[in-house]
Design a protein that fits this description.
This is Dihydrolipoamide dehydrogenase. Belongs to the class-I pyridine nucleotide-disulfide oxidoreductase family. The chain is an alpha/beta fold. The protein is built from 14 helices and 23 strands.
Length: 472
């Protein structure tokens, strides 16, 4: 049995764990990193990276079909689904060296390719090695949640982990789950030539602003997606190539392939958390505002911490715990400034409170500033005028922003910065954006907040009149 002592032990080499390990070792800490599966975790291998690569392939096919308005003849593309998957894997392989074991060992991290099991409050067993650490960070992420639907275990089904190995294009893809993963993969497969039916037990895109979500869902249905809402899956039957999903209300849907995309489950099993005095539940590990667990030596970050499940959240959490672990400084993780995006076409992005949430929390003190993409010159030039931004404002400061439209995932960054820095709408209005860009949408939204104050105010008109009359 090999025994190691270290300053910091990181369990999990996904986005959050790698950020902690890289930051800590480069600032002088002794770091051990455990990873039993693939370096880079879910984001690189099964999530963000491959999904966006497949979405890009679908977008290319869509572009070829819709060139006539630009004077370029529409062409029905010849799609090779297997080659599209080759593209996905090439993208993963291009990024992989950044997250590789070799790179992190080059930085000075001791990488052990084993799972970690707590044997005490500060000790973890990793294969034939016992690691004792001053501080430990659990960054084991999450995995696809597989609902207990009768018959599901008797038919072949896909998840976001197994989809990327599929080489033959689905003729008719059934998707259980109308959240971001399900909707993104629905549009990608529609554009690559599959028929797609999305089966959602409640309301598709239910966590987003309903007005903006409807714009996305309408576009997908125009492209051919069949959306079945209020269809709670009760049973699955069939065989390879002919799978049937039976809904509780009597509806049934038959397709050639089935993708299960109903959410994520925190990876807490097999860690020996009870041995370390760490409390957890089905949502994840219990943490305080500083991401510390019930064992003060141990932190949890990213998906396993039971908060917002996004790669950039894991990276943000890494920065929070590094401040505490390395410098002994107080640090707290916040959520109100965390943006997220669904990479459909058009994209849908959110930060802070939605309109409904802001109304509930702030009542009559909340105002909504709106601006339509159809009034943006760049959007008009590129025929990407389907879109809308809504900014929720309380006492002159944004408390939330919702954007649907081209580049929404990029545009939301301004509002994430504004909320994180407690900026005023006047500061956003004072920003100068290059013309013509979609970035002007943000400035115009801020302008929409001030327009009634400037152009419909009798006081403003009286002041202007006074200046024009009496000042030389």
């Amino acid at each position: 049995m090999k025994k190691l002592k270290t300053d910091l032990l990181v369990i999990g080499a996904g986005s959050g764990g790698l950020s902690v390990a890289a930051g800590a070792v480069q600032m002088g800490a002794d770091v051990v990193l455990l990873e039993k599966h693939k370096m880079g975790g879910d984001c690189l291998n099964y999530g963000c990276v491959p999904s966006k690569a497949l979405i890009a392939a679908g977008k290319q096919a869509y572009t070829l079909r819709h060139g006539a308005d630009f004077g370029v003849a529409d062409v029905e593309p010849e799609i090779d689904y297997a080659v599209a998957k080759d593209h996905v894997h090439q993208v993963i392989e291009t990024i992989a060296p950044v997250d590789s074991q070799e790179r992190f060992e080059g930085l000075g991290v001791n990488v052990i390719r084993e799972s970690g099991i707590f044997t005490g409050p500060d000790t973890v067993q990793a294969g034939e090695t016992e690691v004792t650490a001053r501080r430990i960070v659990i960054a084991t992420g999450s995995a696809p949640f597989i609902p207990p639907i009768p018959g599901l275990d008797e038919v072949p089904y896909l998840t976001n982990e197994t989809l990327w190995d599929l080489r033959e294009r689905p003729d008719h893809l059934l998707i259980i789950g109308g959240g971001p993963i399900g909707i993104e993969m629905a549009q990608a497969h529609l554009r690559l030539g599959s028929r797609v039916t999305v089966i959602e037990g409640e309301t598709a895109m239910g966590k987003d602003d309903p007005e903006l979500a409807k714009i996305v869902l309408d576009r997908l249905q125009d492209e051919g997606m069949v959306l079945e809402e209020g269809a709670l899956a009760e049973k699955v039957t069939g065989k390879d190539g002919e799978i049937k999903v039976h809904a509780k209300d009597g509806r049934s849907f038959t397709g050639s392939h089935l993708l299960v995309a109903v959410g994520r489950a925190a990876n807490v099993d097999g860690l020996g958390l009870k041995e370390a005095g760490i409390k957890y539940d089905r949502k994840g590990i219990k943490v305080d505002a500083g991401l510390r667990t019930t064992n003060r030596r141990v932190y949890a970050i990213g998906d396993v911490a039971g908060q917002l499940q996004f790669t950039h959240v894991a990276g943000y959490h890494a920065g929070v715990v590094i401040r505490s672990i390395l410098f002994g400084l107080p640090a707290k993780a916040k959520q109100n400034h965390i943006p997220w995006a669904t990479y459909t076409d058009p994209e849908l992005a959110q930060v802070g409170l939605t309109e409904a949430q802001a109304k509930k929390e702030h009542g009559i003190n909340m105002e909504v500033a709106r601006f339509e993409f159809q009034e943006n010159d760049r959007a008009i030039a590129e025929r990407k005028t389907t879109g809308l931004i809504k900014v929720m404002v309380v006492k002159g400061r944004p408390v939330g922003a919702s954007i649907v439209g081209a580049g929404a995932g990029d545009l939301i960054g301004v509002w994430a910065l504004a909320i994180a820095s407690n900026l005023k709408m006047s500061q956003i209005s004072g920003m100068v954006a290059p013309y013509p860009t979609l970035g002007e949408v943000n400035k115009r939204a801020a302008g929409a907040y001030f327009s009634p104050r400037l152009f419909e105010s009798d006081m403003v008109k009286r002041v202007v009149g006074f200046v024009q009359k009496y000042l030389p």
